[in-house]
Give the backbone structure.
Amino acid sequence: MQAAEAAKGLAPNQPVLGASAFSGDDAREATVPLHRSVYGYDPDTATYSKTEDGHRLADAALGQPLRIQMVIVLHTKVSVTSIVEDVNGAPGLDYDLDASGQAEVYSRGKKATGTWSSAGRNAPLDFKLADGSKLSLPRALVWVDVVP
C-alpha cells in the first residue's frame, strides 16, 4: 500500500478518489462481537485500525497498524457444512455470497447502512446505501467482515 501511495504521489493519510461521500451517524468505533473485533477510528489519518482478541492487527511488512479506509460489515446466510475444519472436529461454515443482504459501512468516522448483492458466483459484490445510491469503494484498504 505504501509503495502504491508513493507511486501516485499520495501522502499515507491523504484521501483517495473513489470513496463515496456519505452522511451518517458518528462512528468512532465499530464492534463485531462474533469475530471479537473492534475497529477504532483515527481522525488524524481518517482510517480505522482493527483489534482482534485485544491485539491490534499490523502490516507485517511495515510494522505499523493497518490503516483501513472503509469497513463493511456484510450480513448473509450461513450454513453448517459436513467438512471438518480442525482437529477438534469443528464443522465448516458456508457463507452465502451469491445472494444479497444488509450491510453497515464505516468510513471517515461515519456509519451508513445499506445493502449488498451479487449477480452470481463469479460476479463482484455490489453495494448500495440505504438511499439507493451506489457505494463506490476507495482505492485503499477496504475490510469486509462477513457475519450471519
Q: What stands out?
A: The longest helix spans residues 2-7. The domain at 26-147 is CATH 3.50.90.10 (YerB-like fold). The radius of gyration is 17 Å.
